[in-house]
């Protein structure tokens, strides 16, 4: 008995720390990285999976490194993930982009003239930009038009009305339909009618285009994890419960204590003690009470003063009511319900030999009829594949197909053999070649079925707004006049401008760490405006420390 008690004490002691980070995706790793870089090693990162990286994961298919999740670094200027990759030699700046030739084919196997494809693509981009302009303009859309899908379809209708030839009009309609399906994979939704028209412009697109890391996106995890003590990172520790208010403070007051989404108002802040520096990191101080208890599914318990929750929005939508004790404030639960966390899946087909024209890199699929929406998933049996908008050539023997929404979720229930047969039929039909072989290997992602993601990435649904993202980001305190929050949130779903991106997740994790690293007492912040380069870097968000 005595030995058991000693072991229990030892385990309990090692499970106490200043900060617990829940989730080892980019946001969680960023928080841990910045804590470590600033001298705070008294934290634990709990990751549910056997691996870290969250939605950053790659596999080898043949000689290719294939991304199952995040594909690109979105933008260069002001992107901290790009800066991190550059600093660690992960980007080949001498590598020239590969030529990209797209062809569009009908179900009858006829190829659309490139001039027509280019015409419709340019018109579509114009329609999309008009949707984005509502966010920064004072103009209101036409009455009854509240979604991106509705607005673009209105523009398409007006555009096609000017074309007299029925066949030419129909062909252009098919291209528009294909581009709208493509947009659902970009936005992360089932249908563009789900995306709020007035908010689509809230997403900030960084300049510089999309960048692919030659070593795979997972290579960005290496410079982060090498700064994190290995003992601080615990895999296979799914969290069951976060008890974040052990002092029984009424959490309904959490909203009333706040004047915005980032900072809780501190009334009569405690004065700094004379023996501590006013800018001393809180991680260096001893705080006797542990505000948080985190219970894992294996029964193991961890205790801390602060917890940073970085689990994806999809998981929060499914588990927030039971995950937190006490329950999150009503405004957070409402924000969770209003935001969208859609599904985007990939279909990877590996072949024994090349069969696609060497000059072609992508085949757009112009399906004859628009995808029928079915309330019953079983009714998608004969139509799910019509949501696949194209196949892209990753190599001569490797093709990538994209699919989103309900159809993607339905595909996740199918066997690979069925997916192989369907995709082979599609390629034979659209390329008008009955001899196209079956692939020797097929890999399909299943982000909606994964218990630790429950989807792909965040979008602002009709009726939601940036404010809902800011509400999710707002940290929570368990008593008034408290210097630092007890419960903080990070993840791409908490960044109001960069939601759905890896750099949004990175920045949110950095922000959470900075809040806990700041002084325990409010400080006057002075900006030296003479040094405009520092201010510019701060605005662009490229500082790594």
From TrEMBL:
<comment type="similarity">
    <text>Belongs to the flavin monoamine oxidase family.</text>
</comment>
<keyword id="KW-0560">Oxidoreductase</keyword>
<dbReference type="GO" id="GO:0005737">
    <property type="term" value="C:cytoplasm"/>
</dbReference>
<dbReference type="InterPro" id="IPR050281">
    <property type="entry name" value="Flavin_monoamine_oxidase"/>
</dbReference>
<dbReference type="InterPro" id="IPR036188">
    <property type="entry name" value="FAD/NAD-bd_sf"/>
</dbReference>
<keyword id="KW-0963">Cytoplasm</keyword>
<keyword id="KW-0285">Flavoprotein</keyword>
<dbReference type="Pfam" id="PF01593">
    <property type="entry name" value="Amino_oxidase"/>
</dbReference>
<feature type="domain" description="Amine oxidase">
    <location>
        <begin position="292"/>
        <end position="516"/>
    </location>
</feature>
<keyword id="KW-0274">FAD</keyword>
<feature type="domain" description="Amine oxidase">
    <location>
        <begin position="26"/>
        <end position="251"/>
    </location>
</feature>
<feature type="region of interest" description="Disordered">
    <location>
        <begin position="251"/>
        <end position="283"/>
    </location>
</feature>
<dbReference type="InterPro" id="IPR002937">
    <property type="entry name" value="Amino_oxidase"/>
</dbReference>
<protein>
    <recommendedName>
        <fullName>Amine oxidase domain-containing protein</fullName>
    </recommendedName>
</protein>
<dbReference type="GO" id="GO:0046592">
    <property type="term" value="F:polyamine oxidase activity"/>
</dbReference>
